[in-house]
Design a protein that fits this description.
globular, OB fold (Dihydrolipoamide Acetyltransferase, E2P), 2 domains, 3-stranded antiparallel sheet, 140 residues, binds zinc ion
Length: 140
């Protein structure tokens, strides 16, 4: 299982993840308020350094996906084929997160057959024990 590599800007994202919350950084300038991802110090819209972490519903749609096949690193080759998806968040279609489509928070990478994936299918975030966001089908 992958574990997060945490930097200063992204630390709150992972901290909320361990609490089971998907939060996205937002500009705290009241005239702007734009969401941004990945986390960074400065707003790309208004250049403000003030930010806050807004809670998301965790709902989204598959915007794109790939199904990796060997050659892969040995630990991944054992689990291939599995689904790597790009999720477009329901509240913020411009915010897209990369993750895995799985059957539950700590389920194996290959727990959902890749043929179940379709562009546009609705997914819901779940969090592994280490706080890693993963995705399950809204209608399994
Ligand atoms: Zn801003």
């Amino acid at each position: 299982m992958l574990t997060p590599v945490v930097d200063d800007d992204g630390a709150p994202f992972w901290g909320y993840g361990t609490q089971g919350e998907l939060r996205i950084q937002a500009c705290a300038n009241p005239d702007c308020g734009e969401l941004r991802f990945p986390p960074r110090p400065c707003c790309p819209h208004c250049q403000s350094f003030d930010s806050e972490w807004r809670r998301m519903s965790g709902k989204g749609r598959v915007w794109s996906y790939v199904v990796p096949h060997p050659p892969l690193l040995p630990a991944y080759a054992e689990q291939a084929p599995y689904a790597v998806i790009v999720v477009e968040l329901a509240e913020a279609p411009r915010i897209r997160l990369v993750g895995n489509l799985v059957s539950g928070p700590d389920a194996p990478l290959n727990s959902v057959p890749p043929e179940r994936i379709r562009i546009g299918v609705k997914v819901q975030v779940v969090f592994s024990r280490s706080g890693l966001p993963r995705w399950v089908l809204e209608r399994p």
